[in-house]
Specification:
- The structure is a single chain.
- By secondary structure, the chain is α+β, with helices and mostly antiparallel strands.
- The protein contains eleven helices and 35 strands.
- The strands form eight sheets. Strands 2, 3, 4, 5 and 6 form a five-stranded antiparallel β-sheet that branches. Strands 7, 8, 9, 10 and 11 form a five-stranded antiparallel β-sheet that branches.
- Strand 21 and strand 22 form a beta hairpin.
């Protein structure tokens, strides 16, 4: 997994006068520093060991031996090394206690870790230049105090299960599941991708993007995503909008790169993906930018960045589309979410409010743990650890969840280094807010051919435009995710066709559901007749309800765009009540719609109205559902 080596405050003490040591231990120590800086932890450990074996009180060698053991995740020996250093010189450097605290946390020796953190804060001089370091110490102390409560909590879920059909002998990670839970995208370094094997690791064939489909409750054999998404370079961290037609992912060390890893974006046009485009130096920085998630509606991206100015090694940032449809300036998610350490692998759930992410700065089980928080009233809530057995002593990252509530994540718990993908069912209190998935095919009503249409999601009460989607130009397929707690208008429009709208009322207590809603658009031609589904009147009266304005404004725009069009507004009722009253009511309602359109700027001679009462039913009046369909407002093109 492409990632930066996070700062652990390895201090190279400028101006430190070393005591006179034998030449050989000094040379071994210098060799250890050199190979440590190259990232070869095992070789560095060997050099430092040789140095302390030759000179048992070699303080600098003991210190860096302990640091290197921490890098190598050999926490027992990290604690031993710092303990030896303490016995030689308890005032050598405050950071020896900080490093000991880190290792003790991983060993679940939390009381000892608190003591080490307190010693670090006691011995670190309280000066302005040390304020950031003291923040780190306070966080480590809080981690040691609070983690005991978390680790002793009773499990609230069944153990996660590795997905045998997806995992390989190489690393598999960064899963993202589609809202319907039927497709899983992930990154793998398995053989069979685009890259040659890594010379130093024969199981690493470079990072590529894969997907698997769920059929009859079984995951299919993973398949490579096509070019140009995958390339000979490292391609990883795929994140998709709800309809699967926009993807944001990561490429590293490219000729046009801003930093060493950048975010790229691409769109599915028919059956082909567009050329991936670097998101540029507004989104990307000169540092490491990676691990994106994009909201279901495509308006928001949250990602991981190690850019300067953050709270710690890597932080979570958010960009949103501005009023011009361009991506705005990244905003740090702030000190509630981010810590002085590392936050990464964000995932914004289908509800658009629940954020899952990984952190080693908030209290947990050691390594990276998965947390979640909610965006409410303009701010993020305090992160909550998802608990065991989802979280473990290994690194647990890259959580995603379907709209129905099945979770997927990657973990190194089995062998300590190689990541595998697991699935788990969360308890209700840890799931996102309920959503409804509306999907279907937009087609030509005359020819049944698929249409690439603009699909708008609006709040039917306020008229707020929530998102702009598109149906696929080749298949006509569309998918929108509607979070519970609002009432929506979902409309489709395409040039040369009359628009279609449908309302969806989703109270806060709505349960997850999938709705198939195929849309047949009527061509704009003389004689075309359509029902406007989202025009509502007060019961038994002709006053338009305000929620009708969203639909009426679309009709007004259609007439303005087609200056030769003349329409008839037809009012219809069910058969409840007398024929005369129904006819009169239908005439008044049709006239109310006509007056609205004239006031909105349409010439009087282009809008006619007529009431039909109960004489032209389109459904059986013996049922409430049928009567509701018969109570309708129709538009008919009489001239064009």
């Amino acid at each position: 997994m492409k990632k930066i080596i996070q700062p652990v405050l390895v201090l190279f003490f400028i101006g430190l006068t070393l005591l006179a040591h034998a030449q050989e231990p000094r040379e071994l120590y210098n060799d250890g520093i050199r190979v440590l800086n190259s990232g070869d932890f095992n070789k560095a450990i060997g050099k430092f060991k040789e140095a302390v074996n030759l000179k048992n009180d070699y303080q600098d060698a003991w210190y860096y031996l302990g640091i290197t053991f921490n890098y190598a995740k050999d926490y027992e020996n990290a604690v031993y090394s710092m303990s030896r250093l303490k016995s030689i010189n308890p005032n050598y450097n405050p950071w020896m206690y900080y490093e000991a605290c880190k290792a003790l946390i991983e060993l679940d020796k939390l009381d000892d870790a608190q003591n080490a953190a307190n010693l670090f804060l006691e011995k670190l001089e309280d000066t302005p230049n040390n304020m950031m370091s003291r923040h780190q110490g306070v966080y480590r102390l809080n981690y040691a105090k609070e983690s005991s409560k978390i680790r002793s909590s009773a499990p609230t879920m069944s153990a996660p299960q590795p997905i045998a059909a997806i995992n390989s002998a190489s690393g598999d990670y960064m899963p993202q599941v589609s809202p319907t839970g039927t497709r899983l995208y992930f990154t793998s370094v398995r053989q069979g991708g685009f890259d040659d094997p890594d010379a130093s690791n024969p199981t690493d064939f470079g990072e590529d993007l894969y997907f698997s489909s769920l059929t009859n409750d079984a995951w299919s054999t993973p398949q490579l995503l096509p070019e140009p998404l995958n390339s000979m370079g490292d391609d990883f961290g795929s994140a998709f909008t709800g309809d699967g037609q926009v993807m944001v992912y990561v490429k590293c060390e490219t000729p046009e790169g801003i930093g060493n890893c950048d975010l790229y974006i691409t769109q599915l046009v028919g059956t082909e993906w567009s050329k991936p485009m670097n998101m540029g130096n507004v989104v990307n920085s000169e540092e490491w930018d990676s691990q994106p998630t994009i909201s279901s509606d495509g308006n928001r991206i949250i990602y991981t960045s190690a850019r300067t100015g953050g709270y710690g090694g890597s932080d979570l940032y958010m960009v949103e589309k501005n009023q011009l449809g361009e991506w705005g300036i990244p905003q740090n998610l702030g000190g509630i979410v981010n810590s002085p350490f590392n936050e990464n692998s964000p995932y914004l759930a289908p509800d658009g409010k629940t954020l899952y992410f990984a952190s080693n700065g908030h209290p947990g089980y050691g390594g990276m743990d998965i947390f979640y928080c909610l965006f409410e009233n303009g701010k993020w809530s305090k992160p909550k650890n998802l608990g065991a057995p989802l979280n473990s002593r290994g690194d647990d990252t890259n959580f995603s969840i379907s709209a129905e509530g099945m979770g997927y994540f990657s973990s190194s718990r089995l062998d300590g280094s190689n990541f595998e993908i697991f699935q788990i069912e969360l308890p209700d209190e840890l799931k996102p807010k309920p959503t409804v998935v509306v999907q279907g095919i937009v087609s030509n009503s005359k020819t049944q051919e698929p249409i690439g249409a603009v699909v708008l999601i609006e709040d039917i009460n306020s008229g707020e435009l929530i998102s702009v989607n598109k149906s696929n130009s080749s298949s006509g397929e569309y998918l929108v995710v509607l979070p519970a707690g609002r009432n929506y208008s979902v409309s489709a429009s395409s040039k040369g066709f009359f628009f279609y709208s449908q309302s969806f009322e989703l109270p806060a207590d709505t349960s997850y559901a999938e709705i198939t809603n195929d849309i047949a658009l009527e061509p704009i031609e003389k004689g075309t007749k359509v029902v406007l589904n989202n025009i509502f009147f007060e019961s038994g009266r002709a006053e338009l309800k305000p929620i009708s304005y969203v639909e009426l404004n679309k009709a007004v725009d259609l007439l303005k765009d087609n200056s030769t069009m003349v329409i008839e507004i037809g009012g219809h009722t069910d058969n409840v009540g007398s024929d005369a009253l129904n006819l009169s009511l239908s005439e008044k309602r049709a006239e109310a719609v006509r007056k609205y359109m004239i006031l909105a700027g349409i010439e009087e001679e282009r809008v006619r109205s007529k009431g039909y009462g109960e004489t032209v039913p389109i459904a059986d009046n013996s049922t409430e559902e049928g009567r509701a369909k018969n109570r309708r407002t129709e538009f008919e093109i009489v001239e064009f």
